[in-house]
Every structure is written in C-alpha cells, then in structure tokens.
Design brief:
The chain is of the alpha/beta class. The protein is about 55% helix and about 10% strand. It has 4 domains: about 1-130, 3-Layer(aba) Sandwich (Rossmann fold), CATH 3.40.50.2300; about 155-310, 2-Layer Sandwich (Alpha-Beta Plaits); about 315-430, no CATH class; about 435-535, Orthogonal Bundle (Arc Repressor Mutant, subunit A). Helix 4 (about 85-95) links the parallel strand 4 and strand 5. GO terms for molecular function: DNA-binding transcription factor activity; sequence-specific DNA binding.
C-alpha cells in the first residue's frame, strides 16, 4: 500500500512521516504534494490507497481535493489534518468521504489510530470489491454456458422455448411471437493445425473467438444468435429469426471475419425456413445434413444449402470394401508398390464418382477397420479376438488446408502408408511368435494394470529372474521394468483423451495406486504432466 501526504508546509509533512510506523502498518511507499493540484496529478498517476490532506492550501484547497476524489469514485481513504477547528470544514470532510478530521498540533496516538482504521476500512472494502468482481466474472463466464444449454434444449424440445420467451427477448431481441426461423451449422471438424498456431494451440480460445465473431455479425442487426450446441460434435449453431432471406449473406460476412482474424475459413450447412419453435429441430437437421453430406471435392464453396443437396448423392457411393479383394492381394504380397497401386485404383474410382462427403469418410473408416481385422486374423492364423497391430485411426479424419480445401490425393497417400506400416507390423508379430520373451511381452501387455514383479513373471513362465532380465534386454533393447512403465503410460495416454475421466482414475486403471507417483513417471517418459498432455490432445 502507498500513502500520499498533502500539505503546503513541509515541516507538517515531515512530522506525519515520522509519527506513523508505516512499514508495521503495511505502507511501503510515501508520496508528498504541496497543494491540491499537485496531489490530484499524483493520485491519477500513482493511485495511493491512503491520502492525508490539509484544508487550507494554495492552487487547490483540501475541500476541492476531497470533492474531486469523491466525484472520481476513487477507493482511496482520506484523513484530514487541519489547523482550523471549523465545523463547516469537518462537515465537508464527512460529506466527501473523509474518515477523520485531526487538528494540529498532531497527537501521535490519535494519528496512528486513524491510520489503522483507514487501512482496516480500505482492506475490508477491497476484499468486498474483489469478491464482487469475482462474482461478476463467474456470472459472465456462466451466462454463455447457460444460454448454450437453453438454445440446445430448444432444438431437442422446441416447446421449452415458451418457458424462456421473455428472457430470450430481453437478452437477444428474439421477438415473442416469432413465426419463422432458419438454422445454420458451423463445423469445427477438419480445422487446419496451422490456424491454431497464433493461439498457441489453445482450442478453447480459438473456439471462443469464433463464437465472438459469429455473434458480432448476428447481433449487429439483432438477426439471431450463435451458440455451442451440446451434442457429441463440437459445432456452432446459428439461429436466425429476422432477415431470413439474407441468411447466406450473413454467413459470408462471418467467413470474412474468420478469414481476417483466424486466417482460415469454415464450412456452414444452412437449412430452409421453418415455423418457430415447432420446426426448430427440423431446421437444425436440414442444416446438419447440408453440412455432413456436402461434397468435399467441390473446392471454393463453404456455405452449403440443404435445398441444393443432390438427392442422388447417397446412391453414388464407392465403398472401400468394393476394392477389398484387390487390396487384400496387394497387402499379402508384402510389396509396398503393389499396395500403393491398389489404393490408387480405389482413389481413381472415388474421383470418377465425383463425390465425397464427411459421412462417407466415417463409412470408409469403419470398412477399413473390418478389413484390417480380417487380414490380421488370417495372417496370424487366429480365430479368437486376440489384439493385433493397431491401424491408423486417423487415416480417414477430415482435414483441410488453411484455404479450407480437402485433398483426396493426401487421403490416398495416408491410406497407402498405413497399409504398408500395418503389413510390416503383422510380419514382425508373426516372427515373434514362439519366442518366450515375446510371450512375456504379451503377458505384460495383458496384465499391465496389475502389480507385476519380475518374480511373478519368473514364477509364471518357470524361468529364473536373471534369465528373463538378461534376455528381455537383449531381445527388446530395454529393461523389463522400463517396458512395463512405457506400456502403462501408453495406455494412460489413450485414456487421457477422454475428458470425462479423472487423472486418479486413469492412474489406478493402468496399475498406479499413487497418483503423484503416476504423474512423476508420466512426466519422466513424456516430458509433460498428465494434465498438460490431455490439454494438448483435446485440441
């Protein structure tokens, strides 16, 4: 805290400085001014918490200074020290918020007690201000979440609108009695990582910026509201209730804002006009269908109208399984070039069809998983559900470049490379069969969540601890204990991708009863804490 002493007499200022045990009371800085005007300039610049002032001074007197402090609604506490025993001056002191009126010559005990009370008052009020500011911040943070829930509920249950109609009118200008609406859906899916770079990969901040841009456009003309829809996808939904014929133009303005601020564009699905609130769910479904059934091969178009969907589009499907036999033969050949050629044939068929939708990517992901499972069991001569090598789950993820364009060629390259990697993994796995060390490795992978000691493994396989320890290091290039830790942390990394699981639960699930020890091992092996890793994976 800092204090300002205002008096035109230097010896009075010096006396005040000497009489008060400043450091003991928490005052770390003392300022001085010889008149009210100089004090005013210091207050504006330094903002002291405690102000002592004389009443009779040149340029600006104490009453005028007190009045100015009061008008500025400053939080500083003031104490008047005056040589005039004047009722009117004391009255002006109280009128403008002064805490005490001390007469000269100054009584030390009276002055110290006045300072203590002023400091206590300031600290108490500052605590109340802080609590109040925190409450306001919490309310401001919770309000968008609340309205997201209200609007999301309106899509699921349009009748819920009637319970909120007046509040929606007050908050967003949604007129009571609105008859027609349109809905647009903006997908966050496929955003290019380069677009997140300026946000330090903070997806929440990026998403918050998108919402602000969207609502700035909507609220300029009280046209509608953009909110985060509480469903499995992370998407922004825009409800428009006025100037519906200008919906596409408004979405284009949003795109301009995204391009200018975020250096990227997004894809919108826009439904038709529907009655409100009864048709709200149908309006959302149309917009969602327009978005998820759009043709990814159409470059340059980012606003997709439900009315322009090709009704035959769903019939023009090129299944990955249609090329399953050619892919299987190439896969079992073990030749990388043949696998690339088989994938290229499939890519050519998709290109000839002229249509790819986000829904088709999901279909291909599922088909690829089934094919790889079949090939794995045939290769390893397994009939059970024993796990084989993991395929690339992200091969068929929707990805755009910074210009919001999709590349089928890049998808084909990713598929071919994953097939080659998968075949190599299967070959290596088959070679490992019959080797007891790899049986131990498989045992660890199956029982990693239990307490596993070297003695337990030795007893299970009827081998000596020394032999297992030596051979494991020779075959796999790492100690058994290090391998167990690495497997556990790898499993933990996958579990951390689920935001609904607590770190302590994940630690126990992978064999660590002590959360702190788990975090220590996790950071040692990955270079970051579990929470830091989770934040990076959820982007």
């Amino acid at each position: 805290m800092r204090a300002l002493i205002v008096d035109d007499e230097k010896h009075v200022r010096d006396a005040i400085k000497l009489l008060v045990p400043w450091s003991e009371l928490g005052i770390t800085g003392l300022l001085e001014a010889a008149d009210g005007q100089s004090a005013k300039e210091l207050i504006e610049r330094e903002k002291p918490e405690l102000i002592f002032t004389d009443m009779m001074m040149p340029v600006m007197n104490g009453v005028d200074l007190l009045r100015w402090i009061h008008e500025q609604e400053l939080t500083s506490k003031t104490i008047v020290i005056s040589g005039y025993d004047d009722f009117q001056l004391a009255r002006e002191t109280l009128r403008y918020g002064g805490l005490d009126y001390i007469l000269k010559p100054i009584e030390p005990d009276q002055l110290i007690e006045a300072v203590r009370q002023a400091i206590d008052t300031w600290c108490r009020e500052n605590k109340d201000r802080t609590l109040s500011q925190n409450r306001v911040m919490e309310i401001n943070q919770l309000k968008p979440v609340y309205w997201d829930k209200v609007y999301s509920q309106m899509i699921e249950d349009p009748q819920s609108y009637y319970a909120q109609a007046e509040l929606l009118q007050q908050e967003f200008g949604l007129p009571v009695g609105t008859e027609l609406v349109r809905v647009a859906v903006l997908s966050f899916e496929g955003v290019n990582p380069e677009s997140l770079r300026s946000f330090s990969s903070d997806e929440d901040l990026f998403y918050f910026t998108m919402m602000n841009i969207s609502n700035e456009i909507m609220q300029e003309a009280r046209q509608g509201y953009a909110f985060s829809y509480w469903n499995q996808r992370r998407e922004i939904v825009v409800i428009m209730w006025s100037r519906l014929e200008e919906a596409a133009q408004s979405l284009s303005r949003m795109q301009e804002g995204f391009k200018c601020t975020l250096r990227t564009s997004f894809h919108f699905g826009l439904g038709g006009v529907h009655p409100f609130p009864s048709g709200l769910k149908a309006a959302y479904q149309e917009a969602s269908a327009a978005l998820h059934q759009r043709n990814l091969l159409e470059a340059g178009q980012t606003i997709h109208l439900y009315s322009e969907l090709d009704p035959r589009g769903r019939m023009q499907l090129v299944h990955l399984s249609d090329h399953g036999e050619a892919l299987r033969i190439a896969f079992h050949s073990g030749q990388a070039q043949r696998m690339r050629e088989a994938v290229a044939d499939w890519v050519q068929a998709v290109t000839s069809a002229g249509r790819i939708t986000p829904d088709m990517l999901e279909m291909w992901r599922s088909e690829y998983s089934v094919l790889c499972s079949q090939w794995s069991k045939a290769w390893l001569e397994e009939s059970d559900d024993s796990p084989g090598p993991i395929i690339g789950d992200d091969v068929f993820e929707l990805r755009y470049d910074v210009d919001c364009r999709f590349s089928l060629e890049q998808l084909g390259q990713a598929l071919a490379e994953d097939l080659i990697r998968f075949e190599q993994s299967l070959r290596e796995l088959k070679q490992q069969r019959g080797n007891v060390i790899y049986e131990i490795k498989k045992y660890v992978e199956t029982h990693y969540q239990r307490e596993i000691s070297l003695q337990d493994i030795a007893n299970h396989f009827y081998l000596s601890r020394e032999y297992i320890s030596r051979k494991f290091k020779q075959e796999l290039g790492e100690n058994l204990s290090d391998y167990i830790g690495r497997i556990r942390i790898a499993k933990a990394q996958r579990l951390l991708e689920n935001p609904n699981m607590r770190v302590v639960q994940i630690a126990q699930m992978v064999g660590y009863q002590d959360e702190k020890y788990f975090s220590k091992v996790f950071k040692k092996l990955t270079g970051m804490t579990p929470n830091e890793y989770r934040k990076g994976q959820l982007l």
